Amino acid sequence: MPPAIHTVLGPLAPDRLGVCDAHDHLFFRSRQLPGQELDDVAAAEAELRAFRAAGGAAVVQWSPYGTGRRADALPDLARGTGTHIVAATGLHQAAHYDAELLARVMPRLAEVFVTELTEAVRGTGERPVTAGLIKVAGAFHGLDAHARHTMTAAAEAHHATGAPIAVHHELGTGVLDVLDLLCGRLEVAPGSVILGHLNRSPDEWGHREAAKSGAFLAFDGPSRANHATDWRMLDCVAALVEGGFGGQVLLGGDTTTAAARSVDGGGPGMPYLTRVLRPRLVERLGEEAAHAVFTANPARAFAW
């Protein structure tokens, strides 16, 4: 069977993915963000429609196990808006969960991941949906015991299925430690690893060293006052493209709270990627580079 993008409506040929928001959230719930839950189906639909109207075609939701990912709602949203949606299995940092959930799931993580990749993710309703990637997370400037355990389970699930592993890097740090573990000791092919939040640490040397591994590099969460601003992010992307690593760069919106949606909050939301960032990327680096970042690269990064 040829590689496919595993969407919530089934396998999709990579060349049909289209312009892709490579890291975002339609639904997300965490004890770290009380009162800021993304759990409104109507708002999620409105955000997807706004993204489609701005030229978007696909969204990869990185909300993993236990974070209110609403797997039950995703198929109808995909059908209703004409948007390809990819769901995630995996596990976030320990701080996002209560102790009871972790005690229940940690001893059988690899089994959970494989089941959700090959059978079904269950949301808050009855309808199941199959996941298309494994989301895990590092710690600040390194890897704690939770991260190592979770990444080891993710590698086991990857070897059993071929699914890509997407990594949350706390404030963009610990990237080389993650590569040493996943691609070194755990023998995950670098092309199956997506390194997230690199915009939060605009270190061009670190980005270049990570790119040499062959992994994909995701810049996400634009226009956040407490992160590197858009102009700095574009500098980092340009440095990678001009250094010959343009085939490994991804962009995403990483909308994690209702206030960050374009349709009912302060934004910038999903449409910002295609309405603002893509034209700026075209102006800076040309249409070929923009096509790679928004279309060709995600078609390869999420295919398995």
Automatic annotation (TrEMBL):
PROSITE patterns: PHOSPHOTRIESTERASE_2
Protein family: Belongs to the metallo-dependent hydrolases superfamily. Phosphotriesterase family.
InterPro entries, A to Z: Metal_Hydrolase, Phosphotriesterase
Sorted UniProt keywords: Hydrolase, Metal-binding
Modified residues (N6-carboxylysine): 135
Superkingdom assignment: Bacteria
Coiled-coil zones: none
A Pfam family recorded for this sequence: PTE
Protein name: Phosphotriesterase
Matches recorded under Gene3D superfamilies: Metal-dependent hydrolases
